[in-house]
TrEMBL record:
<feature type="short sequence motif" description="GXSXG">
    <location>
        <begin position="41"/>
        <end position="45"/>
    </location>
</feature>
<dbReference type="GO" id="GO:0004806">
    <property type="term" value="F:triacylglycerol lipase activity"/>
</dbReference>
<dbReference type="InterPro" id="IPR002641">
    <property type="entry name" value="PNPLA_dom"/>
</dbReference>
<dbReference type="GO" id="GO:0019433">
    <property type="term" value="P:triglyceride catabolic process"/>
</dbReference>
<dbReference type="GO" id="GO:0055088">
    <property type="term" value="P:lipid homeostasis"/>
</dbReference>
<dbReference type="InterPro" id="IPR016035">
    <property type="entry name" value="Acyl_Trfase/lysoPLipase"/>
</dbReference>
<feature type="short sequence motif" description="DGA/G">
    <location>
        <begin position="183"/>
        <end position="185"/>
    </location>
</feature>
<dbReference type="InterPro" id="IPR033562">
    <property type="entry name" value="PLPL"/>
</dbReference>
<dbReference type="GO" id="GO:0005811">
    <property type="term" value="C:lipid droplet"/>
</dbReference>
<dbReference type="Pfam" id="PF01734">
    <property type="entry name" value="Patatin"/>
</dbReference>
<feature type="domain" description="PNPLA">
    <location>
        <begin position="7"/>
        <end position="196"/>
    </location>
</feature>
<feature type="active site" description="Proton acceptor">
    <location>
        <position position="183"/>
    </location>
</feature>
<keyword id="KW-0442">Lipid degradation</keyword>
<keyword id="KW-0443">Lipid metabolism</keyword>
<feature type="active site" description="Nucleophile">
    <location>
        <position position="43"/>
    </location>
</feature>
<protein>
    <submittedName>
        <fullName>NTE family protein</fullName>
    </submittedName>
</protein>
<keyword id="KW-0378">Hydrolase</keyword>
Length: 278
């Protein structure tokens, strides 16, 4: 059984900044989650995870949230996209069925150009070599199957992270290894079950509720515990939820969300240390 896994979930600009704040706050308290054997990133968590696994210190990540660093592809959830998400759930009982419906919606939607999204992602992700520990989730737009890309999967890192962030109806699917891929969060906002086989797991879940029939963060954490892992699951507290606002894709909220995450980390540092260090 492997030792430590860090799971970073989806949540847009707000959720990514909150995770950065939590990571920085925990590091300041002596809990260095960057020392994970495996880092599993979904959507915003894929961006944070790639930078963390590549060696960027949590404090540096936190500092950049308050600067005018490129924020990545800007988007807003339109009424049409929201309706498409609701329709995708009707009569579907599995995450894969919902993902296939969303994949069709994504492939037929008029969104920003794929190259434009890749250019914006390149500014947000100054990492090009795959960190050995990193796993990046995305969903096949045609089959609805989940994939966890890694250094040995023959996938370009930038495209893999862009695929993990490709929310249907907002950003275009990303071509990779001869397939089209969409946001890994349409299957699960954390995909924490990919950490099965690790003894110690910390899950940061900006959006703990699953989309449609997908498994919630709490359910996946319970499954990990049932398999013998020690698990710490952190979700935004009331102050962090206020910082998120109504649109987690609003990049202007990053600094406030990072501060809220850092403040929240202080209250959980001892419990997380107990899981991480034993």
């Amino acid at each position: 059984m492997a030792e430590r896994a860090l799971v970073l979930g989806s949540g847009g600009h707000a959720g990514g900044a909150w995770q950065v704040g939590v990571l920085a706050g925990l590091a300041a308290a002596g809990v260095d989650l960057a020392r994970a054997d495996t880092v599993i990133g979904t959507s915003a968590g894929a961006v944070v995870g790639a930078r963390l696994a590549a060696g960027e210190h949590p404090e540096e990540l936190h500092r950049r949230q308050s600067e005018a660093e490129a924020a990545g592809p800007e988007a807003r959830i339109t009424p049409g996209a929201a309706l498409g998400f609701l329709r995708a759930q009707l009569g579907r009982r599995t995450p894969e069925a919902v993902a296939r419906r969303l994949g069709r919606m994504a492939l037929g939607a008029r969104t920003a150009s794929g190259e434009g999204v890749l250019e914006a992602m390149a500014a947000l992700l100054p990492v090009r070599e795959w960190p050995e520990a990193l796993r990046v989730t995305a969903v096949d737009a045609h089959t609805g199957a989940l994939e966890a890309f890694h250094s040995g999967s023959g996938a370009d890192l930038l495209r893999a992270v862009a695929a993990s962030c490709a929310m249907p109806g907002l950003w275009p699917p990303v071509a990779l290894r001869g397939r089209w891929w969409i946001d890994g969060g349409v299957r699960s906002t954390t995909n924490a079950d990919l950490a099965l086989g690790h003894r110690r797991v910390v899950v940061l879940a900006p959006l703990p509720r699953a989309f449609g029939p997908g498994p919630r963060a709490e359910r996946l954490a319970a499954r990990l515990r049932a398999e013998g892992a020690e698990v710490a699951l952190l979700v935004p507290d009331a102050a962090a939820r206020r910082a998120f606002g109504r649109n987690p894709l609003d990049a202007s909220r990053r600094a406030a969300c990072a501060r809220a995450g850092r403040a929240q980390a202080a209250a959980h540092a001892r419990a997380v240390a107990g899981v991480w260090h034993g």
